[in-house]
Amino acid sequence: MNKGRIFSGMQPSGRFHLGNYMGALENWIRLQHEYECFFSIVDLHALTSSYANTSKLQTNIMEMAIDWLSAGLDPEKNVIFVQSHVKEHAELALLLGMSTPLGWLERVPTYKDKIRDLDGSGKDLHTYGFLGYPVLMAADIMLYKATCVPVGEDQSAHLELTREIVRRFNNMYHKEVFPEPQAVFSKAKVLPGIDGRKMSKSYGNTIPFGAPPEEVSAQIRMMTTDPKRIKKTDPGDPNVCIVYQFQKVFNTEEVADIEAKCRAGEIGCVQCKKCLAEKMNSMLAGIHAKRKELEQKPGYIKEVLEYGEQRARVEAEKNMAEIKAAMNVL
Q1: How far apart, in Å, are the Cα atoms of 158 and each of 44, 83, 139, 251?
Q2: Closest listed residue to residue 165, CA positions, set 154, 179, 151, 153
């Protein structure tokens, strides 16, 4: 039974990686069977931090669409489209921005966090667009009157701001135009990067999604292990080993045995990494094969996005007419 309508999106800001898949896309695959879903490649959001270099934007959009489809998103079951292809996203963001208090935007935790994280990267994030990112996100959700949004814990502040914008709009214009979207907290598996930090393209520590077996194996060989373990027979501490973190996700059947042998010095890091590579490549083989197939069908990918755009536009145009009528912007 359909529980409601979901909107969610991802930025096409670079090569999709395994952390993106485990943190969000895997959850989308499950949710598509329970909700009416609108999934958007949010290219306008990518411009909030990557506006100075858009040379790879169109390639990234196509690559992301391939990743989503190869992972199992159904283009018939879901509305899959590119954000900027539906102009109402930008229009609603502009209208909502007129009444969103500046203080609301400045207090969003991720605003200052991201500026701090990218300090020294050469990117200037002191822009109107970056500060207004949460308003654009609210517009994405509100445009389709989404009742639910899949989020991680780190995104809950953004969703609460969307809920505040919804309440402010409904109260200001004396009409319940929008529902207050509820959080659907994802059952995400958090993967660290191969160096132990957060898996991020900006750190260069990712495992690309849909990568061929040899690339996956090469990245696993570079993973950080227990720095105090010098010889194979030395007792290891799995809790400080990145390989062990991945074993817990991809090798649940053997992880307890591997932990015991590591602590006893009965299995070496090289052997442990080889075991992990075999498990991961086996689990991801179907996705890799599907991705290789879709890479040869650019026309089909464009058709999927155009079909999703048409479906999204019907809903967007209908809702925008109601929104503008409530605001007397006719």
Answers
A1: 17, 18, 12, 34
A2: 179
Q: What pLDDT digit, counting tens, does each position of 164-213 carry?
A: 999 999 999 999 999 999 999 876 677 899 999 989 887 889 999 989 99
The C-alpha angle with vertex 308 and arms to 307 and 314, in degrees rounded to 5, equals: 95
Is residue 279 within 8 A of residue 255, CB to CB? The reply is no
**pTM for the full predicted model:** 0.93
Cα dihedral 177/32/90/50 (nearest 10): 140
Low-confidence ranges of the chain (pLDDT < 70): 1-2, 118-120, 153-154, 187-188
| Distance in angstroms (rounded) separating the CA atoms of residues 61 and 54 | 11
Closest CA to 294 of 212, 210, 214, 208: 210
Query: Would you say 89 and 83 are in contact if contact means Cβ atoms under 8 Å apart?
Result: yes
Q: In b/e form, how buried is each residue of 84-108, taking b as 16+ CB within 10 angstroms?
A: bbbebbebbbebbbeebeeeebeeb
Identify the CA nearest to 291 among candidates 75, 81, 72, 77: 72
H helices present in the chain, as ranges: 18-20, 26-31, 43-50, 57-71, 88-97, 102-106, 109-117, 128-131, 133-143, 156-172, 213-221, 242-250, 255-263, 269-295, 298-327
